[in-house]
Hints:
The protein is an alpha+beta fold. It has helices at residues 3-6, 21-25, 101-104, 127-135, 140-143, 248-280, 293-304; strands at residues 9-12, 33-39, 48-52, 55-62, 65-72, 75-85, 88-93, 114-124, 153-154, 158-165, 173-181, 184-186, 190-192, 200-201, 206-210, 214-218, 223-230, 235-245, 286-289. It has 7 helices and 19 strands. The chain has a 7-stranded antiparallel β-sheet. A 6-stranded antiparallel β-sheet has the order 2-7-6-5-4-3. A two-stranded antiparallel sheet has the order 1-19. The two termini are 39 Å apart.
Amino acid sequence: xxxxxxxxxxxxxxxxxxxxxxxxxxxxxxxxxxxxxxxxxxxxxxxxxxxxxxxxxxxxxxxxxxxxxxxxxxxxxxxxxxxxxxxxxxxxxxxxxxxxxxxxxxxxxxxxxxxxxxxxxxxxxxxxxxxxxxxxxxxxxxxxxxxxxxxxxxxxxxxxxxxxxxxxxxxxxxxxxxxxxxxxxxxxxxxxxxxxxxxxxxxxxxxxxxxxxxxxxxxxxxxxxxxxxxxxxxxxxxxxxxxxxxxxxxxxxxxxxxxxxxxxxxxxxxxxxxxxxxxxxxxxxxxxxxxxxxxxxxxxxxxxxx
Length: 306
């Protein structure tokens, strides 16, 4: 397939459009969902204040449990439901009775043998841009080609992709890749990308996303999760997790693998490339091309499940 066959584009709008009104309105995220926001170990006797969903929220420990209060000066304007799971503090964004946290958390994070490491940062850029960037099928092929993480990986030139849930009751939607091409001929450019003897061909990873904005990437022996938590309009809190299951030596090896390699190569250099892009994204207007069916599927999920 030539570049000309891939160049078909359609125009569309995201923010301010009428096609996805619930998504467009979710500047500060979705209500009736739990969000991970803080490491449990980070909250000691001294309270911690975070800006979440447009509000300053004070987290503190009292009577052996965590509490979270939105404050205006010294006045409490809202009390949030808070729970601790998987080494994280989760906050429920909603004024109704909270739905089950365990029903929302991915089962692998609740595994008694789960080994979880990660990084939590504050980033500029709309949380929806971050979610779309994470689930976007096409961006890795252009943005991350010089990332250290893929030094020995030959990324495909293009693939065919469709997006669907694993089953009707699955809260995740997953990108399914087929028709993988590692090189293609482009008019005026020639064959791209160039073959490098040290790079191994790799078809791609299994990538899924679910509400309210959690991404899952399956690397086989371990999994990566990331959640985009709105703070104020145009900014978000970025929660990255790397996990596997194991005990003893296996658990120790994974923690060393994370701290010596993944923490720097993946959760910093690789994903900081995403952060730089998300910060500068702005729509409308936008132009979509065929791989952007992954973005449309995510937007439709947001519309149909709220």
